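Hey, why these numbers?
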Amino acid sequence: MKLDDLVPPRSSPYNFAFLDEGAKREIRRALLKAVAIPGHQVPFASPELPIARGWGTGGLQVTMSLIGPQDVLKIIDQGCDGSVNAVNLRKLLVATTGVRTTYDSREATLLQSRHRLPEIPMQEGQIAVLQVPLPEPLRLVEPSEVETRRMHADGDYARMWVSLYEDVVQNGAISLASGYPCRVNDSYIMSPSPIPRWDIRRLNQSRQLTLLGAGREKRVYAVPPYTSVQPLEFEDMPFTVEDFSGMSCVRCGSTDTFLDEIYDEATGTSFRACSDTGYCDLVRSGQVASPAERDSGRVPAEAAGE
């Protein structure tokens, strides 16, 4: 790559990817440490951006520090390519980089997401960047930052286990619907960001590099490829994911994806649709096999998007 390549479109008055090169280097150094110590939270400067903290500044800074002119970018918000958050972050990055964007997760070299991972498993060479509002999984059981750092250093997670046990006693099961705590590389406990339980298994031994950024809390951490990510569970209370038995997407008919419930005010009824709109569109267009075609065994794995 030449230095001339790092020039944004002529219409942009900003540096390539908005951040100055010094800020990018500082974030990349933090990311290298995060990759070397999976699940460990690494502090970084978290400079100001033209969007409010809490709207994805952590993930956006990670993306800005890594993106290059040859990258293909996909940004989703809870699985949707067309939500306000995804559209505005995409506009900012395109305006300051000129990179090509896509709605197909298979084409993306960089995928930034809020609260979801794509239904089609990501592959080697791809990078998933997750936006994180609360990176510290121990915050609900210990308010002191000094104490949580000590607990991580000592591997002292007793209070986390007690909290989960109390949840089981009160509710009959662990009620956490998102941000479920996980043990990474048989060491640190981390928050996987507010992704649903459905996506937790996608992090375990995944082929892609997963980077997590919390701008407001000024922390980054990572899950390298082929790393163990195990949700916390009791022997007699195994980890379970959301159950969509008997439900299907109203748009594409999928029965094996994470389904959002959508309420129709006009009719007073609700229906289910794929959270991952890019995947849903691929199934509808025939570029990815439908569940019926996959179940028939007539479709090769490539056509199924796997």
Observations:
- Helices lie at 21-36, 57-66, 84-97, 145-154, 158-171, 200-203, 277-285, 291-296.
